[in-house]
Amino acid sequence: MELLQVLAQQEPGELAEGLTAVGRGIVYGAAAIGPGIGIGIVVGNAITAMARQPESAGMVRTTMFLGIAFTEALALFGFVLSFIVAG
Amino acid sequence: MTTPASSATGVPAGPAPETEIARDLARRAVPVAPVLIAACGLGWGIEGALSSAYAVALVVANFLVAAALMAWAAKISVGMLMGTVLAGYLLRLGALTLAVVAVRHAAWVELLPLGLTLVVTHLGLLVWEAQHVSLSLAFPGLKPRAQKG
Asked: Per the domain annotation, does A43 fall within a domain?
């Protein structure tokens, strides 16, 4: 009931503004989870490869760095979307 | 590409490949930046050009910081590398968010060119670098050498 009273006192557009902020947070948060998991998989497998073949560690680290950066691009998409779509 | 392994940590000694790639990416950003800045300038005026330049700087700084963190952690241990990469991801994403949030209401900022340049520069530089790296990994003889004279 109190919530309804609070909502009734809102200026027009305030609710939409608040919901936009919440939506922006959800988009950004969801977009950051996937790359986090992906980066964990990339680094975990790279470490396994380095442990099995230490002599190829240079190549593995090179590929790992690029893999991490590509995975991170997904988070950037979410970040940019959350700013651009919400305005 | 093989590098000798250090006896203490199992992590290779010598120059860190991440740092080399990040420097290479920064070098490649030099000819790309004016094109993107000019394109955004044409579309959104001086604010677009400034926002685009800011985005290119953010992307290059992101790569350099990531490489520096990984190179530092790899010298210690592979466990440290794992932790640093994951924590570094969160830290860099947070720093990037702060860097954009701090200027988003500034008069010289246009969010659309800023965001577009962030994504295009990040992906474009990576694709360019990956093409170069995959070529030199598959055919070491084709790896570009430093020009003399």
From this structure: yes
